[in-house]
């Protein structure tokens, strides 16, 4: 049987921080005119957003490499690559690049969904904290 608890109690997260880090967070929170809790949330959101941006930029760079490739190779170039043994290597490299690109895109979709879910959860936590603050 589930105990009747307030949402605020369920969302609490105990975190041990070194004093120097806590002081840095408190200093940043003060300069950003927000609570320590909201400062931590903002930093975490920024970090997760940056991770998604980095993955997105990696995908864009991969696609740019594709744009630099010629749309087709002349029969003479194909023969040259085949004779040198580079054609098989080139095909393998392209297959690996395609697989990696597909994986990055799937990761980005998954990250986006997690970021949205976490952002919504963080908004709810902040609303609960604000409500509790106004009650006291």
TrEMBL record:
Pfam families: Arc (PF03869). This is Arc-like DNA binding domain-containing protein. One of its GO terms (biological process) is regulation of DNA-templated transcription. Residues 8-50 form the Arc-like DNA binding domain. The lineage of its organism: Bacteria, Pseudomonadati, Pseudomonadota, Alphaproteobacteria, Hyphomicrobiales. It comes from the Bacteria. Coiled coil: none annotated. GO terms for molecular function: DNA binding.
């Amino acid at each position: 049987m589930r105990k009747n608890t307030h949402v605020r109690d369920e969302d609490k997260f105990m975190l041990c921080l070194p004093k120097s880090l806590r002081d840095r967070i408190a200093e940043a929170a003060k300069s950003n005119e927000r609570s320590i809790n909201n400062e931590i949330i903002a930093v975490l959101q920024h970090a997760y957003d940056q991770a998604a941006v980095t993955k997105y930029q990696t995908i864009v760079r991969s696609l740019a490499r594709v744009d630099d490739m010629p749309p087709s190779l002349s029969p003479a170039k194909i023969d040259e690559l085949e004779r040198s043994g580079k054609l098989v290597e080139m095909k393998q490299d392209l297959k690996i690049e395609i697989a990696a690109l597909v994986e990055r895109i799937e990761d980005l979709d998954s990250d986006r969904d997690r970021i949205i879910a976490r952002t919504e959860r963080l908004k709810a936590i902040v609303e609960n904290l604000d409500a509790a603050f106004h009650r006291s």
